[in-house]
Amino acid sequence: MAGLIYWGIRVYEDYEDTTYSNEFGKVLSEALVAENEGDFAKALKLYRKCLVVCDNEMTSELDQHYTGAVLKVAEMFEKLEDFDHALAVYKTLSEFMVSEIGRPDSNLSKKKFDMLLQQSMVATMRYTNLLKPEEKYKVKKLLLDNIVMAQRRLAEHYPAFLVLLYDQINRSIVDFLTAADPRVPKLPNELRSIVKEGLVAQLAPQPGPDMAKLPKEIKLLITAGDAWLPFVKELVSLRDQFADICISEGSLDEASFYLRTNLLLMQSSIDEPGKLTLTLTKMGVVLYLMSEEYEKHAKLLENTDQIAIIDQLSTLGFKPKPDTSQGKFGNVLNKIKEISYKESEASFQQVLELTGMIRSASFGTDTQLPEFVTVGMHLAEMISSTGLAMHMLREKKYAESKKHFLRARVLALKYDVDDYLKDIDFHLEELNSKMP
């Protein structure tokens, strides 16, 4: 179909035959060879020819070979740096597939649905990556559409997955996983009773029921890697992209929910430790920023009237009782602030431990490690070192803070992350003035 790339995708009658003709196979093989040889212009022509063959044979546009060829067309545009056309095709393909495979009357088999959903998620992920930072808000609905469909399918396939979508129980799973780690704080009994009694109904991430009281199926989910469907990796990526948008918009509590669930998904289903370190780092940063917000709002409560208190707490995800005093609110916020600070610090420390373990598996170097292991690891290590330095500075542990800042500086120079050097040097000068 000549107008497909520029004008969108027409809908043919859906059917389940996923085999392709000899002619399609011949053209596809030529396209793959051209792409492998780096001749992306030739590959683009051949992938578009694949679509012409499909149209001539009246192949359904929901056939995964058809949609796969469209995805390849977009990918070739991207490799040729024709980003306008790449964006248009990725967007059109994902919107079309979300609309079609999400129809209640769809007769797709589960296997085909999963394959098409995975392609839609890849298209959405690449579309989002190509957008400028100030444009990413435009893709929130498309990201959510894909995320919701994937999560609904996972819940259908493995019902215990539903539990991971509720952050209160989600926190209990985190508590269960980290029960033996003294660095990860648990909610103090005093604060538990305050929340339980309804003084503050916490809507932002906070612990829920004890893990011991949850069904064993939920505990098994943590290690049920073989139960996951093939698009879980894409789901994690889309949730991560959505979290990034939330962070840029200042919706830190929402971002922390997506990141926390992602950590559990990654530990149980995806063997990419480098990306795990990056997500842990991002979680540490978000928790640190949330702590600063809690601290700021706690100070504001000291000399604020009751109506303003309720408005301020609502922005943090709380639903307060109107007859509660400023002092009690401030006390609760300060306790939550300290919990978030400690959890942030633990996240950064875990990143450094994990990167050390990864290097130990490769005799202390990165050179023997495949790229899928190290991707994101260096940036995570540098930011986490900076994060720990900031925590030590806040706690007035100046020698420890300087040690971590110096490590972060070495890593920033080693891996060409110059954007952080100015801030690191500023804090090092500040520390030198404080230390004897």
TrEMBL record:
- Could you tell me the Gene Ontology terms of the biological process aspect for this record? protein quality control for misfolded or incompletely synthesized proteins
Annotated SUPFAM superfamilies? TPR-like (SSF48452)
Instruction: Look up the domain of life of the source.
Output: Eukaryota
Q: Which InterPro entries match?
A: Mrg3-like (IPR040201), TPR-like_helical_dom_sf (IPR011990)
Recorded GO MF terms: misfolded protein binding
- Record-level GO cellular component terms: i-AAA complex
Q: What is this protein called?
A: Uncharacterized protein
